[in-house]
Automatic annotation (TrEMBL):
PANTHER family: 4-HYDROXY-2-OXOGLUTARATE ALDOLASE, MITOCHONDRIAL (PTHR12128:SF66), DIHYDRODIPICOLINATE SYNTHASE (PTHR12128). This is Dihydrodipicolinate synthase. It comes from the Eukaryota. Belongs to the DapA family. InterPro entries: Aldolase_TIM, DapA-like. Keywords: Lyase.
């Protein structure tokens, strides 16, 4: 997540876990378990959750489910004493009108930012100029600031260029940030390299499981302890690089195994994951980082 130099109203600096969405056995949303995940994350000092991103299986959620999730999480963070916690909500639709409907619904549910995924239908027709028009008109119409979500792996390989981002942020002041899930790095892999490059924090799937460890990398870096930050980053990268092979149900399986709530159930077309089904290298790396994470709670 990289801060643009053109506008100050970006999400506050820090760690943002992309909250997972738990499902029951027959794929209805398990709201109770999903809300349970929020409290330990807030207690660990995360800056705010990202809702309905890739780890939340956003494409598998209906409009009314999306709005209900945002509304219930806003009420929940208020009830536990954090009413000002920023909520970033992800959206991906093949055209502008539906994206703006999603954003309007999120606004009604008291979200703070929209994270907008690149459209990918008719991939061959989506040029840089088409992307600029898409994001620019959404930013101009949105009732709150937007983040661009660049994730080529889930949009047919479309990769937003730095030049496109620069033009967008200069021309549309409501475009305040970008979430980068691109290149050969995993999600948590971006943390330390991003800090060196001037990032404004991190949105990392592994922060659902070890949020305090992500905060510690940032603290060590900002305190000038580069060697300590790098050593922690290596641990995060090993776990993240293997866990990402398991997809969002793998992140859920970690929560089930270590925290005792939810399930590894995905919504079709995803299956179900358990720790015991992980390959040995994934399990070992996850166990190591989970053990390390306890030291920073």
């Amino acid at each position: 997540m990289y801060k643009t130099p053109y506008l100050a109203s970006v999400p506050p600096y820090g760690v943002y876990p992309p909250l997972i969405t738990f499902f029951h056995e027959y794929e209805s949303i398990d709201y109770e378990s999903t809300l349970k995940l929020v409290h330990p994350l807030v207690s660990a000092g995360v800056t705010g959750p990202v809702l309905q991103g890739s780890n939340a299986e956003a494409p598998h959620l209906l409009h009314e489910e999306r709005q209900k999730l945002v509304s219930r999480i806003r009420q929940h963070v208020t009830d536990i004493g954090h009413p000002q916690l920023p909520l970033i909500v992800g959206y991906g639709a093949p055209q502008r009108a539906e994206t703006l409907v999603h954003i309007s619904e999120a606004n009604a549910a008291e979200a703070d930012y929209a994270m907008v995924l690149t459209p990918e239908y008719w991939r061959s027709a989506i040029s840089p100029s088409v992307l600029e028009t898409f994001f620019g008109t959404i930013a101009d119409a949105s009732p709150f600031p937007i983040l661009i979500y660049n994730y080529p792996d889930v949009v047919g390989g479309i990769d937003i260029t730095s030049d496109t981002v620069i033009r967008l942020t200069k021309a549309h002041s409501n475009t305040v940030d970008i979430k980068l899930t691109c290149g050969d790095d995993g999600k948590a892999d971006f943390l330390h390299p991003g800090l060196v490059a001037g990032s404004h924090g991190t949105i990392a799937g592994l922060a659902n499981s070890v949020p305090a460890l992500h905060r510690e990398v940032i603290r060590q870096y900002r305190d000038g302890n580069l060697k300590e930050a790098q050593e922690l980053q290596v641990k995060l990268s090993h776990a993240d690089g293997t866990l990402m092979k398991m997809g969002p149900t793998g992140v859920k399986a970690v929560s089930v195994h270590y925290f005792g709530y939810g399930s590894g159930q995905g919504r079709s077309s995803l299956g179900t994951s358990t720790i015991s089904s992980f390959p040995e290298d994934v399990r070992q790396n996850v166990e190591e980082v989970m053990s390390l994470g306890k030291a920073y709670l």
